[in-house]
Amino acid sequence: MSTLTDSIDEMVARRRPGYSLEQEFYTDPAIFDLDVERIFMRNWLYAGHVSRIAAPGDYFLFEVAGESIIIIRGSGGEVNALFNVCRHRGSRICLEGQGSVKRLVCPYHAWVYDTNGALIAARHMADDFERDQFGLHRCHVRVVEGLIFICAAAQPPDFTAIEADLQRFFAPYELADTRTATLLRHVVEANWKLVAENFFECYHCGHTHPEFCSVMSYGRAIDSPRLADEQAAFVAEWEAEMERRGYLTGHVEVSDERVHQCHRVPIRRGYLTQSEDGQPVAPLLGQLTEYDGGVSSAQLYPNIWFVACSDHAMLARFTPLSPTRTEAEFSWMVRGDAREGHDYDPERVSWLWRTTAAEDWAICEDNQRGVNSRRYQPGPYSRVEGSVDALLEWYLRQLSLYRPMSM
Length: 407
Ligand code: FES
Ligand SMILES: [Fe+2]
What we know:
Elements: H1 8-13, H2 24-27, H3 29-40, E1 45-49, E2 58-64, E3 67-73, E4 79-83, E5 98-100, E6 104-105, E7 112-113, E8 119-121, E9 140-144, E10 147-151, H4 160-170, E11 178-188, H5 192-199, H6 205-208, H7 210-215, H8 218-221, H9 225-245, E12 250-252, E13 260-266, E14 294-300, E15 304-309, E16 313-322, E17 325-335, H10 346-371, H11 386-400
The structure holds FE2/S2 (inorganic) cluster and fe (ii) ion.
């Protein structure tokens, strides 16, 4: 039950910049419902990788806060995102999380849709029933580098900049031609914003992620002037070498117009990839001819995080389930022709982020339990948590900019 005593507009207006949000933003069902409507039903979301629907009729369900979207390969090879809601009396159509179908048949009264969502059969309807008016409702879809994005809004936000930057930072890896080495789903007992805040800062990395800090040299550099100097020199040296070899370096940051950030950074001296010992864990991806010791990453509001190094990639999405529950899904990708047990070991490929994510989930759940307390009050961010503040500013602007969704 909602605990709100003030209007959302009042709560947004009195937010103190540079501070975490009031308790209700992390706990209240009414605010959660607004989050779903104004954030998750209006923005581009990462649904999954194209390898999950290789052939026409292959599908998987993308579930977001009670909505169920059928991501299905159409008869012409296109990717469709269809609301899993029958146009007769509203039954769910697909009940299994994934599968392969020739047609979509509603289990209730057997209306039949094709893989593009058109209604092709409906028994005993009136003579003037117009079948073509009853196709399944659709989401907008974009596929970039094998990554399927959907947007449920009637007018989706501009996708041009996201597409251009993902291509610029990820094209060399040819992610469209990768396969899933292993996939991990976990329900985090925390509000989606606590999970998102966590993955937008590394203030916590030095003392909570020993494995991450043993791999990524920037992890501890923020806490030591000496390590910070060494890190700056290492990055400058690596960037000069990458430029000499013709490889991308640099970054783009979140701004008023941009809801994503992309970075390309070195791992650690002597490390070729993000593995426990820095040694390769899979064959080189895409067009690469050597291990360059770098990692490309992208973080997109509200729920997306991608990382790619020379021989594997990690694709993560976070979707809200309830005010205090969030589903995390991590996929580790390797070359499409790599063979498990021969070319790679899923445990070695996934070691870094599997370990780090488990630590993050525990932190987020502790954070939620503390936020639930009657003594919780918004606290101030440090100098190195500016990206969390930017995330929340964007979030609050989205709440204020609300226009009802029309189909
Ligand atoms: S609800 Fe789907 S056929 Fe009736
Ligand atoms: Fe973390």
